[in-house]
Amino acid sequence: MESKSNRLPMGQSRRFILSDETQFAIKEAYKAARTNLVFSLAENDKKTVVITSCSPSEGKSTNCLNMAITMAETGSNVLLIDSDMRKPVQHLLLRLDNKIGLSSVLGGIVRDVSKVIDRNVRSHLDVLTSGPIPPNPAELISGSRMTQLLDLVGEHYDYIFLDTPPINVVTDAVLLNNRTAGIIFVVKEGFTRHEEIRESLRKIRMTNGRVLGFIKTNCSAKPLKSGYKYKYKYKYNSYGDYR
Fold first, then answer.
1. Which of 84, 63, 95, 176 is nearest to 131 (CA)?
2. pLDDT tens across 199-239, in order?
């Protein structure tokens, strides 16, 4: 069960969304993550990326949004889909209506996905919110309509980011393995345990998934010997030795 002490009020969470006021070092860290991701996807026909975490309260939704924003800043057309149909937050972070959304499309209530996409939430960034919470999110995620949706939007967007539930809580993220380029894990310093990471990676290996990298949050900002004022608060690492 998620600890209440680890939840941030939505107003505080919005403070972490990239903006003109965001510290330079943090912006540069996301740009470094973007560069690594672009190279990781260079020879992959699929440009759809899953962003998840091991457990709740690690910052996966905010980081999914920030990666989408950073990618859109290059001029690429980007779509963020809130695929967490259990505890969705993208509509709250962005103050969007969520009366219809992904669940409406996957449930066959809405036939034309273009009618439920929020356009230009940021420059070059569109968002498909989760929609009403359905009784069968895993079945909807794994169904043929999800495949059809990703194929359809893949024709119109350069990159697609999927915000999914924590992988050690439910299976939604791994259900998307064969339809996406891979997974980025968000881990929180001083919070995420090594055994949780190992368990997450075991699940990915068992389902033939690909881990593109890790984004580490909640890092301490200490002065460097070079005199540079801030360390990067967000770190992108390759899969590397975690196999």
1. 84
2. 999 998 888 899 999 998 877 655 444 443 333 344 444 44
Q: Look at the block and give the residue holding tokens 């963020």.
A: 80
Closest CA to 16 of 66, 80, 71: 66
Contact 37, 170 (CB under 8 A): no
More confident residue, 1 or 162: 162
- What's the rounded Cα separation, in Å, for the pair 112 and 1? 37
Q: Which of 36-45, 140-149, 185-194 reaches the highest mean pLDDT?
A: 140-149
Q: Is 133 helix (H, G, I), strand (E, B) or coil?
A: coil
End-to-end CA distance of the chain: 28
Beta bridge partners of 122: 125
Determine how many CB atoms are found less than 10 A away from the CB of residue 12: 9
Q: Which structural domains are found in the chain, ordered by start? A: 54-242 (3.40.50.300)
CB 124 within 8 A of CB 97: no
Question: Nearest Cα to 234, choosing from 7, 56, 31?
Answer: 31
163 DSSP β-pair partners: 51, 82
Determine the average pLDDT of the residues in 9-25. 83
